[in-house]
Amino acid sequence: xxxxxxxxxxxxxxxxxxxxxxxxxxxxxxxxxxxxxxxxxxxxxxxxxxxxxxxxxxxxxxxxxxxxxxxxxxxxxxxxxxxxxxxxxxxxxxxxxxxxxxxxxxxxxxxxxxxxxxxxxxxxxxxxxxxxxxxxxxxxxxxxxxxxxxxxxxxxxxxxxxxxxxxxxxxxxxxxxxxxxxxxxxxxxxxxxxxxxxxxxxx
Length: 203
Fold this sequence. Notes:
mainly alpha, 2 domains, two-stranded parallel sheet, about 75% helix, about 0% strand
């Protein structure tokens, strides 16, 4: 035996056997701690899988709901006011366009009645004014009945105020107060008021 203990290979084998025995013994002693057994788990299944209905109320929830309803009502009111404002704005825009069109129409009508004497026709108009001014107002009115309003207004523009007055008076009384002549006399008076001469026509 002592001879075996002196052998190095024997000592190595003996050490290996002792190490393996120690590990096997440790495994047997601490197996339950290293590999614990599965524990039984109690599983409870509901027979009725329908969702649970919660029914609860609180002061905070009621307050939040009231605040939400209030804000929704304010939003609805603002939307209604906005719609009313847009409708009023559209109506005002249409009215403004109508007024603008009426102003343009009135301007065109006014410009149509404005008599402007050009320099080149001033001499001829003055000659006609002198000729008609020497006639009786009755004869002048009859001649004027064959001329358009613009031409008559230009001729009157070169007559003396007294002569113009006699002619317009004759229009007003001729034929026992003919409405058409009275209106024409008024229109000619207005055209004379609006008339303007070219600067060269006055030279």
